Amino acid sequence: MGLVLLLLLTGAVGLSLAPALIGRGSDGIRPSDLLIALLHVALVAYLAAAYLALVLRAEQAFDRLQASCGDDAGSVCRLDAARRACCPPPFGPATRGWWLAGLCGLGFAVAGPHLTEPEAGSLLAWWDPRPWSPAIAWHRLLGLAAGVLLGFFAYAVVHVSRQLSQLARALPGIDLFDPAPLRPFTDQGLTNGLLVAGALSLFGLFALDQGLSPMLASVATLALALVGVAIALPLRGVRDRIRQAKRAALRDLDARIAQAARARPPMVEPGRLADWIALRGHLAAVREWPFDTRALHTALLYVLIPLGSWIASGLVQHLLERFVLAG
C-alpha cells in the first residue's frame, strides 16, 4: 500500500509539474530533466514514508517484546525506559542527535551536487538562483528537503538499532531452541534492510544517464554493505546473548560428559551419556544470528535489491538509446 501511495503521489506531482517544466519557451527541457524532477519527488516522499515506517515498526517491536515479558516487572520497566529512549519524533523527543543528523543531511544536500560536478562552478555559483530554470529550481529545493529527510532517516536507523541491541543484552533469559521471542529483533533488522535498499535504489536512479559503468559497480558494492549493516545492527545484542548462552550450555554439557566418561563405575543412567552427546550436537548447530532459512533468503533479497534495480535501469536505458532514440 505504501508503494502504491508513493507511485500515485509521484505521478500526481509529476503531472502537475510537467506543464511548468516542459513549457519553457520554445526550447522546453530535456526529458531527462523531467525524469530527475520526478525522482526528487519520489525520493522526498520515500524518505518521509520510510522514516515513519521504521519508527512505527520499532513501536510494534516494543509492544511485542512487552507482551512476551508477561508479569516480569523488571523486564517491563526496562522496556518502558528503552522505548522512551529509542523512538525519535514524532513518537519521541527531538534530541540533539536528531537535529544534528538533519543538519548533516542538509550540508550533504548543499555540498553534494558541487562535489559531484565541480566543473559546473564554485559552491556559491551552484546555489545562485538567478540563472535557474523552473526545473533547476525544483531540483535544488527538493534536494535540500531530501537531504534533511535523509539525515533523519539515517539517524532513526542507527539510533533505533542501537537501542534495541542494548535492550537485547538486558533480556532475562534466552531459549536457544525457541527463537520466537527474538522475532521482533529480526523483523526490525529486515525492515531496516528493506527501507535502506529502497532508498539506495532511488539514489542510484540519478545516475541513469551514465548507464552501466565502473562507478555504478563500485557504488553498488558500497550499497550492498550498507544494506547488510542496516540488517545486522539491531541484532548485535541478540547475537551476543545467543553466543553467551550457547557457550555456557556447551561448557556445562562438556563438563558433564567428561565427568561421566571418567567415572568408574558409571555414575549416569544407561543412555544418558548418548543423550548429552546428541544434545551437544544440537546446541552446536544453533545459529548465533537469529535468522531462520526464510529470514536469510529475505535478507539476501534485500541486499540484492539496489544492485538489481540499477542494472535493470541501465539495461533499459541502453535499449532505449539503441533502438528507440537512435531510430
What are its keywords?
11 helices; elongated; disordered N terminus; 327 residues; mainly alpha
Question: What does it look like?
Answer:
The protein has 327 residues and is mainly α. The protein is elongated. The two termini are 39 Å apart. Helices cover 76% and strands 0% of the residues. Helix 2 (31-69) packs antiparallel against helix 3 and helix 6 packs parallel to helix 9. It has helices spanning 2-22, 31-69, 73-86, 96-116, 123-126, 134-169, 183-204, 214-232, 236-262, 272-284, 293-325.
Can you give me a brief rundown of this structure?
With 327 residues, the protein is mostly helical. The chain has eleven helices and no strands.
Report the β-strand fraction as a percent range.
under 5%
How many β-strand stretches?
Answer: 0
The best one-word shape is: elongated
Poorly predicted runs: 1-8, 18-27
Q: How helix-rich are the residues, as a percent range?
A: over 70%
Return the structural class. mainly alpha
The H-and-E topology, N to C, reads as HHHHHHHHHHH
The tally of helices reads: 11
Rg is 26 Å
Q: Separation of termini? A: 39 Å
Summarize the main sheet. Answer: none
The whole-number mean of residue pLDDT values reads 74
